[in-house]
Amino acid sequence: MNALTVFSLAVVAVCSGAQLPWFPGMYGAYPGFHPWYRSGMPLMPQPTMKAMAPAPMAYNMAPFASMAPIHSQYGAQNEFGQYSFGYNAGFSARNEMRDAFGNVRGSYNYLDADGKVQTQHYVADALGYRVAGTNLPEAPAPAVPEYTPEVAAARAAHQAAHSEAAAAAAATPATQ
Fold first, then answer.
1. Mean pLDDT value across the chain
2. How far apart are CA 95 and CA 88, in angstroms?
3. Is residue 133 helix, strand or coil?
4. In angstroms, rounded to a whole number, what is the distance separating the alpha carbons of residues 80 and 100?
5. Which of 56, 98, 159, 167 is most buried, judging by how many CB atoms fall within 10 Å of its CB?
6. Residue 63 Cα distances to 5, 68, 101, 116, angstroms
7. Which of 14, 8, 37 is nearest to 24 (CA)?
8. pTM recorded for the entire structure
9. Residue 110: what pLDDT?
């Protein structure tokens, strides 16, 4: 249900004849009152009226989640293809802009099922579509590869040959 429907139902419930003793209700069903819509009488109790207890009220309404009202929104566009728009509605917000070259940048956030605010930032331009967000999976850190015994032996032999060549080069005087 949207917020306007819920608010309207609440107003009807509060303004029903069970809460207001001087109002006869929708059908004038309470004794001691003259329905104003039938008789044209003012909304005043008659002098012979007995005190009545308010009738219990029961509503068969589906549960609803309260919605945050839209606090602000904007939008603009020009003849060069540039635009910008956005809104802010409490835990949900979005903004996006496009420049004259066709590059689009924007972000949005929302409240996820765990009650956390998730934020996404995106760019769409000549380099493609890129996104960064708080709920995207992260790649594991690169691990140092483990070498097979053959590769480890070859690396050790290469390192030994390199060290031997470096020592020989250091022992020979440099000639210019």
1. 75
2. 9
3. strand
4. 6
5. 98
6. 13, 16, 48, 22
7. 37
8. 0.42
9. 92
Helical H segments across the chain, by residue range: 3-14, 36-39, 149-171
Contact between residue 135 and residue 112 where contact means Cβ atoms under 8 Å apart: yes
Q: What are phi and psi of 169, to 5 degrees?
A: -70, -35
Q: Which tokens hold the place of 32?
A: 């001691």
Structure tokens at 160: 């030994």
| CA–CA separation, 101 and 122 (whole Å) | 16
Q: Residue 15 in contact with residue 24, Cβ under 8 Å?
A: no
CA–CA distance, 173 with 64 (Å, rounded to integer): 88
Query: Can you tell me the distance from the alpha carbon of 87 to that of 76, in angstroms, rounded to the nearest whole number?
Result: 12
Tokens of residue 91, six digits: 């835990």
What is the number of residues in the chain? Answer: 176
